[in-house]
Amino acid sequence: MASRWRLAVVGGGIAGLAAAVRLRDRAPEDTEIIVYEQSGALGGKLRTGELLGGPVEFGAESFLMRDPAGGDSAVVTLIRRLGLADRIVHPTVGQAALAVDGQLRPIPGGTLMGVPGDLEKVATVARPTPQADHDDGAPMLGDSDDVSVGALVRARFGDEVVDRLVDPMLGGVYAGRADDLSLATTMPALARAARTRHTLLDAVRAAQAAAPRYTGQPIFGTLDGGLSTLVEAAATASGATIRTNAAVRELTPTGTGWRLTVGPTRDPEHVDVDAVVLAVPARPAARLLTGVADAVAAKIGGLDYASVALVTLALPEPTLPQLSGFLVPGTEGLLIKASTFFTTKWGHLRRDDGVALVRASVGRYGDEAQLQRSDEDLAATVHRELSAVLGTPLPAPVGGHVQRWGGALPQYTPGHLDRIAAARTILRAAHPTLTLAGAGYDGVGIPVCVRSGETAAEEIITALGGSAR
């Protein structure tokens, strides 16, 4: 009789936990699964904390309900699998604004991540240069071309559209800059359209026309009780042995699988497993792959990350607009790049005592020096800038929290998708029982990370000879 499988998931973020759940669902029933997490807590950037006796997200706050094809997103499917569907809640206020020229202005409709499909609709915040978007008689991009978002949009619509619309939209998601971020990775629908359309305006409209319609359906959701409930439920459903404060320092191929070296150098633990899902950021993954798959390590090791801080303030009975929040272009010269009015946006978080929770995101790629400030300085600066943007002095906070996420958000430069595809092809050929999962490879957002982890798990099942179920 064959011995039972022993599988390791390195990394206890949502990608790793999704992989562990999928392995449990697809592997033989007696399979042993071990999740190794270097820190003291599971969940990665999903972390629900407490402020003044109530829950508040100190990391990601929501997820997309639908996938690009129009079906349930991967995380919604996982939530249903975990029996948490009745806890999904949706924003009660959806309108957001841009802080432009010292004023809050509604984010224009009809854009694709800030790239306009109707130039007149964006005139309130930016002045496009439509004369530059001329038809040269050929598609804007070749079949395999990738450029930065900023390079394409600046050339076609001018600087203001990038600086005042596209940059803050991308910055809110990636903490990056349009001039650095890959079009194919961050805006794949527009990249596909740009390979057949001759003008940017036509490409945006084509991408919008091809997108599923969500009429009457909520776009975003979260979980009542916080996203940490998803983390806890996934960990339980995986049936895995959870090892926190357990750093995997080395991966060594064996004749039948892998040997993991875990723990401190002076007292290492060696664990033999049949297969490994490597669900850690690209640079730690590259270190583990050096000497094992050097070509793969070289391709993923150059991926850079942005650091951010999330500053949450509890304000007694402030005067806030009926908005979910606002984005701030870098040209405004503020430390804040985005703010969310939690207790306005999410009805289930509203409090009886009149206290409002407001969170601001601080930190743009290449400007990490600003994050060297103390927590007190960051909180005071956020309070001052919020008051300035809202045009009224806000009351002194009665509570607050500063959450720092060092190296949190991957920065996908042009060519990212090709580099990752090549890395995975090499890895699959040389070491089919070792797979990569996570935001560093497949994109940001909870649904993408869940799908990445599940796909990595499926590859492991295939490499080991299929499922017993």
The main sheet comes to: 7 strands, mixed
Percent of residues in beta strands?
A: 15-25%
Structural class computed from helices and strand pairing: alpha+beta
What's the total number of strands?
Answer: 22
How would the global form be characterised?
A: globular
CATH superfamily descriptor of one domain: FAD/NAD(P)-binding domain
Distance between the termini: 17 Å
| CATH topology name of one domain | FAD/NAD(P)-binding domain
* Radius of gyration of CA atoms, rounded to a whole number: 23 Å
Number of helices: 15
Low-confidence stretches: none
| Helix percent band | 25-40%
Keywords: Cytoplasm, FAD, Flavoprotein, Heme biosynthesis, Oxidoreductase
Cofactor: FAD
Pfam families: Amino_oxidase
InterPro entries: Amino_oxidase, FAD/NAD-bd_sf, Protoporphyrinogen_oxidase, Zeta_carotene_desat/Oxidored
